[in-house]
Amino acid sequence: MPQVNPHPPPSQLVSLFSGDEGRGNDIFDSDELVLASPAKWYYPRHPHPLTTPQTHASRLSPGILTNILQYLSSPGDIYNALLVSRSWCECSVELLWDRPSIPDLNTLIKIMEIISREEPTFTYAQFIRRLNFVRVGSDMSDGIFSRLAPCTRLERLTLAGCSKLSDDVIALTVPFFPNLFSIDLSGVESVADRTVFALANSCRKLQGVNLLDCRRVTSSSLCALADGCPVFRRIRLSGLVDLTDEPVSALAMKSSLLLEIDLNGCKKLSDRAVRDIWTHSHNMRELRLSHCVELTNLAFPAPQNIHNLPPGPSSLPQSADSTRQPASDLPPLRLSHPFEHLRMLDLTSCSNITDDAIEGIVAASPRLRNLVLSKCRQLTDRAVESISLLGKRLHSLHLSHAYSITDQSIKTLSRSCTRLRYIDLDGEYFY
User: Fold this and answer.
1) Cβ contact 122:11 at 8 Å
2) What pLDDT sits at residue 239?
3) How many whole angstroms separate alpha carbon 235 and alpha carbon 251?
4) Are 248 and 277 in contact (CB under 8 A)?
5) Of the residues 38, 120, 132, 162, which has the maximum number of CB atoms within 10 A of its CB?
C-alpha cells in the first residue's frame, strides 16, 4: 500500500492527472465543464485572509479567471496555474480533478485515499465528473468501487472490463450518482437486473448506457430503464441473446431523442420491435441489427410500389405487446416522413430480407452513408440498383456473400455513388 502525506497541498497531486485518459472514449459526445464558482477550502488554514502582492492577475474576478482557465487543455498547464496564488488555486483545482487519469493501481489507491479523508484540503470527491477504469479493470474490486459514493457529481463512468465487480455492489453505489448521464458496463458479466433497476430509479438524467455482453440483464429491467430515463440518446444492448421486443419498443416510444441503438446478436427480436424504431425514433442516426435472424421484410419500410396500406404515423396498434398482431400478420410498414437522420445501418446476417426491404430502406432513409448487408444472401441486382439511388451520399457498403449480385449492378453502383470510399464484395461470383 503506497504511503501518502496525510494533508498534501493541491500542488502535489499533479501526478494523478498527468495523462488525458478518458477523453473521447465515452459512448457519446463530450461536453465542456462548466464551473459556477471557485472551489472552497474544506478546512481554512488561516484565521485571517492572506495578503498577496496586488498584480494584474490577482485583480481578476473569479468568474473571469475561471472562464479563462477552462481553455487550458493540458493538466500540466492547469497545475502551473494552480501554483500562482491562493485565488488561482481555488479557480483551477476543480479543473484538475474533473477527470483524473488512472493508469495503474497505485494511482487508483491514492485517489481513493484522498477522497475518503475526513478533512481534505478541498472536497475533491465533489470535483470529479468523469472516471474511466479501463486501464485498471482487472484490479477493480467491490471494496474500491464502493468508496466512490462521495462522488455525487459524477456524470460519466466507464467500467468496461471490470470483471471482478459484483452486481450487488454496483447496484448499491450508483444511487449516489444522481447526475450520471453515461455509464459503460460492457464486459461486466455479473451485471444483472438489480443494477439496471438502480439506474432506472436513481439516474433520471441517464442518456447513454453500454450493456455489451451483460447477458444476465432481462427485458423486465430494461423496460423499467425506458420508463425511468426518458432522455436516452445512445444504448448498446449487443449480445443480450434473450432480449425480447417489449423493452426495444418501449425505448423507441418513450425516448424521442434516441440517436443510436445497438441490438447486434439479439436473436429473439421480431419485426414488431424494429417497426417501432422506424415509426417513433425520428432522430435515429445509427441502427445496428446484425445477426437478428428473425427479421423479415416486414420489419422495414415497404417499397413505394406497394399501395395496399394508406400512409400514416404507425402501422401498429399502440396497445401492450400482448395485444399486438403476430409478426406474420403485420401489414406493410408505411412512414409518414423520411428517416433523414439515419447515417448507419447494419443488417449483417439478416438472411430473411430481400430486395423489397432494401428498396424501402433507401426510399425512407435517403442520407445513408454506411450500409452493411453482409451475408444477406437473398439480395440480387435489384437491391444494388436501389442502393445506387443514394448517389454521392453513400460512403461505405458491405455486400460480401450476396451470391446473386452480378457485375452489371456493380457498374451501375460505381457510376452513381461517386464518393464511395469502401466496398466489400468478398465471396461474390461475378459473371
Assistant:
1) no
2) 94
3) 9
4) yes
5) 162
Task: Report pLDDT digits (tens) over 9-40.
Answer: 444 444 454 444 444 444 444 455 555 556 66
Give the three cell numbers for residue 22. 478518458
- What CA–CA distance (Å, rounded) separates 112 from 140? 12
Cβ(22)–Cβ(130) below 8 Å: yes
Which residue type is seen at 309? L
Q: Give the pLDDT score at 78.
A: 85
CB 145 within 8 A of CB 168: no
260-262/370-372 β-pairing: unpaired
Distance CA 270, CA 352 (A): 12
**Burial per residue of 304-319, b for 16 or more beta-carbon CB atoms within 10 angstroms, e otherwise:** eeeeeeeeeebbbeee
Widest Cα–Cα separation across the chain: 89
The amino acid at 161 = G
Mean per-residue pLDDT pooled into runs of 10, the chain (431 residues) = 44 46 45 56 52 64 83 85 84 88 93 88 91 94 94 96 96 97 95 97 96 96 96 96 96 95 96 96 96 96 66 40 56 90 97 96 96 95 96 96 91 95 79 50
d(CA 416, CA 68): 50
Contacts of 74 (CB under 8 A, 6+ apart): none
Residues 270, 276, 281: CA angle, nearest 5 degrees: 135
- For residue 15, the model assigns a pLDDT of 47
How high is the pLDDT of residue 96? 87
For residue 132 the three cell numbers come to 474511466
User: How many whole angstroms from its chain centre is CA 5?
Assistant: 38
Q: 426 and 399 in contact (C-beta within 8 Å)?
A: no
**Structure confidence at residue 69 (pLDDT):** 85
